[in-house]
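Subject: two folds for Thursday's group meeting

Dear M.,

Sorry for the delay on this. The cluster queue was jammed most of the week, so I only got both jobs back this morning. I'm pasting them in the order they finished. Each block is the input sequence followed by the predicted structure tokens. Could you check whether the formatting survives your parser before we put anything on slides? The first protein is the one we discussed after the seminar.
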Amino acid sequence: MNLRLFGDNWSKYYKRGFLVAFFVLTFMCVVDQTLNTPIFFSKVNNLSVLIFTISTIFFAAIFCGLLSLIYLLIISLLSKK
């Protein structure tokens, strides 16, 4: 077990997971809005749909950041010093 690895790198892993997911989901949303029939997100027609789409992207990015922390925890538990 190498818990020092988790203690030293947890913020870097969370930021990386959050930012990558945020940019990928934002890019997917922008591309999806250009299509006639969107695949992943609803077509933004009014302010309430826009707020819902932005909050979905934000909360999904938070979830991906937490997944990267779980991944780091597993790596730190399995690695040897």
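Second protein, same layout:
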Amino acid sequence: MDFFNKLGDAISGIGKDVSQNVADLTGIARLNMDIRKREDFVKKQYTEIGRQYYDLHKGEEEPFFEEINLITEALQEIEQLKVQIADLKGKKKCPVCGAVNEGEAMYCIKCGARCESVFEDEDVQETEKTQEEIILDEVKEETE
């Protein structure tokens, strides 16, 4: 019987150790999750500070950080891509307020400004540029 008592005590001790280890691991996992939440919060605050700084200094001719120019260029590219998406969907983007309107809309549903296809002007300019390039190429050929 002494053997079974010792075996029971050993199993009981191992069970307590395992349950303590599980509790420790659970506690560590909770603490790691709290750390990640706080790190995410700090990152969001850094981002907000950067956005506010950008908003304050985006109009400067020579900004302190070159990244301000990079952000401005990226935002312009994003706007151009949004216009292309709207055009592919058969919609127009208001040149004044940026609202998306149906393709056949003559005036913006939000601000009332006249809506014209953004790509019509660009297509004309590209065509003219191509014609100018052709003429320049012909002139170069004649002079050579």
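Two things I noticed about the second structure. Residues 1-57 form one domain. Strands lie at 91-93, 100-102.

Cheers,
T.
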